[in-house]
Amino acid sequence: MSYLLMAIAGLWMADGLALLVAPLSIVGKVRRALSTSPSLLKWSGLTLVGGMILLLQASELTYQVLWMVTGFAMVAKGGFFLLSSDETRESVLQWCLSREAVDYRIWGLGLCTLSVLLIHACGWL
User: Fold this and answer.
1) pLDDT attached to residue 52
2) Using the 8-state DSSP alphabet, how is residue 123 labeled?
């Protein structure tokens, strides 16, 4: 199961570094991908599954409360994007994709931090 947690940490690190280095380029690519194929939002199920994995493993990790809160947030986000109406989902996406570059960099820094903490909590660092 620790390999699944490392996969989550790797995704967080990759996303975080991309948002730190080139936030507007990444957001532009996401916007184009969503306009080309709106069914990409079905991948939110992976967020839900990742959150469940994190919740199941949280009791064995250092920073247990952090992983429980993060897991619940991932499950809530995945559930929202899977179950919400198209109008609600679209308005939230438009809000998320219209932020300033500094906002994306802050999220990128947060994702990198979560990644390093998860690697440390698993004993790999």
Assistant:
1) 95
2) T
**What does the alpha-carbon distance between residue 86 and residue 80 come to, in Å, rounded to a whole number?**
11
pTM of the model: 0.88
Alpha carbons 81 and 47: distance in angstroms, whole number: 10
- Both tokens of 11, joined, read 């995704």
* Residue 16, both tokens: 């975080």
Domain residue ranges of the chain, discontinuous segments joined by +: 2-121
Q: Please state whether 73 falls in left (phi above 0), alpha (psi between -120 and 50) or beta.
A: alpha
Q: Which amino acid is at 86?
A: D
For residue 55, the model assigns a pLDDT of: 94
Are 75 and 51 in contact by the 8 Å Cβ rule? The answer is yes
Within 10 A of 38 (CB to CB), how many other CB atoms are there? 13
Q: Give the integer Cα–Cα distance in Å for 13 and 64.
A: 20
Alpha-carbon span 121 to 5, nearest angstrom: 10
Q: pLDDT tens digits, residue range 49-90?
A: 999 999 999 999 999 999 999 999 999 999 998 888 889 988
